[in-house]
Specification:
homodimer; 3 domains; Rossmann fold; alpha+beta; Translation Initiation Factor IF3; 483 residues; disordered N terminus
């Protein structure tokens, strides 16, 4: 499936060309005949499964239950929340014909499931004893996009959407923050990507939400990638979709709601963050394959048999230590091709086994991040691998944090702001008065949009001055050009 | 979420009314505002997850890789296989508007993914070294149905679809049979449902397939439910979608293909097969919750505390034995309500713990299938539970097998055939000449369609006579009225 051509493009030279090459060469994505829709190939999908497994476990431990709601939403139902339908209207795919007949009312292919879920929630909830209700769904959604990039912005994508209902505001905000922290953790602890966490501005928040929080990735080209979002929906949807509960004094109350989602876009973030000129680098904690074993082919039959037996021994050790491994089967291909394949796919550790290793009861291990090669005897293998994976995970996160900080510039004048966006392009931290006028002016002049007000800044009340209008500003915001 | 009203309908009296009541009362399904689409509620979805986990593990152990292909298929691509598009045309949902604009070509919401997958396969396969290719996808599909029933026949449903490509016919048939045996196993070994396995007739096979195999469930009302199918696609799709490979002599060859699928319909089969007048009965091997713990509420605070501590002890034992359990939290509800809830949901074992059980360092366990209640001391708990689950699993399968055989009648004359279908309604085993004319005549007169030619019958060459036209017939077939 994979071409053995060398990379043509260096990551540092042309990130977007490198990206398009690597997603194909690493076997992550195939083009589809449907504009803006992608085929997620087995290796790409295995990364998604790894993300799914992790999040699903965290959700369930918190009492979130999975369920499944229809793909189609009647147009009239979507309209029930005014701002929600306004926000999504330009991106809708509509089914107008079913079973050969024109439908009386078009069906929207879900762009998100608030309305269809909440009309069920309204039936499920009657008393405070039914709360909190915590539901999650793993599914596909469709948003008609004009410009698309694999993983980063696609017409159809896969995601999870969590939706909860609470009796009071305090619990609601706790849920919003718990969700955004799960997302911070999956990026930082699992994918090794350091992120910014904060609140979105009025104009950037989710259509229909009261407040939106997001995690923002700093891409090596200085652009921002919104990694995942968590919304405090307040009572907006409860009002429009008629969700009520009786409190312990038998009074009818409007509940409070949250929704939060992470999509296959996260895989795009993973690719852009860690890859290098040799291909992808997948952080060990999320890698579907942590170790690949390459048996060196020999023409001597006895040698070949020994190598095969030695591989079996190594397998046993990996199995016992619960290490996710695979054995390279491309015995017909050149060793150069086989080695470069494992590099392109970004597998953290590579074990090579030839007759020499059999003799020494050892293996050769090389690390994807440092390319350091070492001979390790079998009795030390398990510890060595665990330590290497652990070390690589830590180094990736540290590098990512350094890069993030390196690509974030504090500026005090708009001239500086414009200079940064024109020359180096990066994240900018600056005071902003929080008026929509300044926000849109800044975007118009520099392409930079507000990303978030970082959590640490949120409660501040500084005596700052807006980077654009110079009026009073109490908090600093992060700005960047968005993907 | 669940009503505490008693069941109104007995399973033996009105199966379809009982079914509609139980799917609601057990919290499996909620109605949706979209005709023919269902909301799969958390308990229903947990059963699906249990089926998924099992199959996914079997598939992966066989080297099948998961991937994801677009939801939308251009209409022209679907048309590439003539019989395929003919078969699916009447059931298509079409997206004609995207992002506010009318599309040049309507997009079909996938009813199945052969065409969209195989146009990728054509790119992925070039040499015999790329074969076999084994891909599976977990997704939603849409077929516009006129009459729908939750789980059994819905416009949108969830399923897995496996698609493989092979270099020769032998390997292809082996794959077809391996898949159909996975389905037999998930029904028999996991869900405790005895099934018939065999080949479909020409008229009943999948649109575009060369041969179709299926597992057929015998529902207590004598109707047939097709549980899952496995298709030998021959070279039909390879021809229409231009898949070729070079063999080891560098000759260009058309490969052979299979596809196979199991859907959320299986949950409908589970409900219909095992339930009773008190609710659902879920076989232990597939049950998302195998044991539910009910703490008896006491007004005495010290007693209540003891019960809580005792529950923790029991939990520890269940955790260690890897038993899937949950603790009933409806402490505010009457004990009658709480017990009947666990029965409606069909949880295999129920543990009750009150002050008396604390004193005896024991628990009360009752079985969902036999309603037998027993006191079991904590030191024997783990063994007792494992044996009970095992015994219940075996009994359910045995009962299912007995029922299946009881509801299968061998007939020798068409008069008998008509009598059975008119009076008792059941599966019928009879000789058939395998002509489409007789098949459609039989359906017209009795509503019975050919279900399968059982595997054991397939190679026979008897001197039988067709039940309808009395011409020569070499094999017996199973007939029944289908769901």
């Amino acid at each position: 499936m994979i071409s053995d051509k060398k990379f043509l493009t260096k990551k540092s030279e042309d990130l977007s060309k490198w990206y398009n090459e690597i997603i194909e060469k690493a076997g992550l994505v195939d083009q589809s005949p449907v504009k803006g829709c992608m085929v997620i190939m087995p290796y790409g999908y295995a990364i998604w499964e790894s993300i799914q497994r992790t999040l699903d476990e965290w959700f369930k431990a918190d009492g979130v239950q999975n369920a499944y709601f229809p793909l189609f939403i009647p147009y009239s139902l979507l309209q029930k929340e005014k701002k929600h339908v306004e926000g999504f209207s330009p991106e809708l795919a509509l089914v107008t014909i079913g079973g050969g007949e024109t439908l009386h009312e078009p069906l929207v292919v879900r762009p998100t499931s608030e309305t269809i879920m909440y009309q069920s929630f309204a039936k499920w909830i009657s008393s405070y004893k039914d709360l909190p209700l915590k539901i999650n769904q793993w599914c596909n959604v469709v948003r008609w996009e004009k410009r698309t990039y694999p993983f980063l912005r696609t017409t159809e994508f896969l995601w999870q959407e969590g939706h909860t209902v609470h009796a009071n505001e305090k619990e609601t905000m706790e849920m919003v923050m718990r969700a955004i922290n799960w997302y911070k953790d999956i990026f930082e602890k699992k994918m090794g990507i350091s992120v910014y966490v904060g609140e979105k501005s009025e104009s950037e928040k989710f259509a229909g939400a009261k407040r939106t929080f997001s995690v923002e990735l700093v891409i090596p080209n200085g652009k921002a990638l919104q990694g995942a979002t968590s919304h405090n929906l307040g009572q907006n949807f409860a009002k429009s979709l008629d969700i009520h509960f009786l409190d312990n004094e038998n009074k009818q109350i409007l509940p409070f709601q949250t929704s939060w989602g992470l999509s296959t876009r996260a895989i795009g973030g993973l690719i852009l963050s860690h890859g290098d000129d040799n291909g992808l680098v997948v952080a060990p904690n999320i890698a579907p394959i942590q170790v690949v074993i390459i048996g060196i082919v020999s023409k001597n039959e006895a040698d070949m048999k020994d190598v095969t037996i030695h591989i079996k021994r190594v397998e046993e050790i990996l199995k016992k230590s619960n290490i996710r491994y695979s054995i390279d089967k491309h015995l017909d291909k050149s060793i150069g091709y086989r080695l470069s394949e494992t590099e392109i796919k970004g597998i953290p550790l590579r074990i090579e086994i030839g007759p020499a290793e059999v003799d020494k009861n050892a293996v050769i291990i090389s690390r994807r991040d440092t390319f350091k090669k070492e001979a390790v005897s079998l009795n030390k293998l398990s510890t060595f691998i665990e330590e290497s994976l652990d070390s690589m995970q830590k180094i990736l996160l540290r590098q990512s944090k350094e890069q993030k900080e390196d690509l974030t510039i504090n500026v005090n004048t708009f001239q500086e702001f414009e200079g940064v966006m024109k020359n180096r392009r990066s994240f900018i931290r600056a005071y902003w008065c929080e008026s929509a006028t300044c926000e849109s002016k800044i975007k118009e002049l520099t392409k930079a949009t507000t990303r978030v007000c970082e959590l640490e800044e949120m409660d501040k009340n500084d005596n700052g001055f807006c980077i654009y209008c110079k009026n009073k500003a109490r908090r600093k915001w992060l700005f960047a050009q968005a993907y």
